[in-house]
Amino acid sequence: MTDSTQTAPERIDVSLLAIRLMVGGGLIFHGILKVLPGAMDGFIAYNTSLGIPLPALGSYLATFAEIGGGLAIATGVLSRISGVPVVFTMLVAGLVAHTGFNIETGGGEYALTLAVIVAALSWSGPGRLTAWRFFGSSAAVSKLARL
Known about the structure:
Blueprint: H1 8-35, H2 39-49, H3 55-75, H4 79-97, H5 108-124, H6 131-135, H7 139-145
């Protein structure tokens, strides 16, 4: 049955917005947890114990990917290009840090699910309901919105 008040593109835009807000918000939340007092030292130590090369740099980059990428995804601003470091970070988290495919054995499925969702959002684009749409429609903004 078709809803005559919304077209298919409108429903897709609302769906993409809901996905972006949830995924972006979750990434921001997890990133902020790493910048709380003392948390970054623990994150660096954990990455060192995993044998991740340059663990301090990697820890800061992963945190930036989560907070910055999460913000970009949630708002739809530069969400396509910001998906690259987020997908990389979630693949490392899912395959190296959180081994095991369920919460009882490491929770890798969560990070891998986020990687797939963010990759799909990067491929599809953020939809029309983005912060760009509300802050201007100049040619420069329109070009940036496609990144």
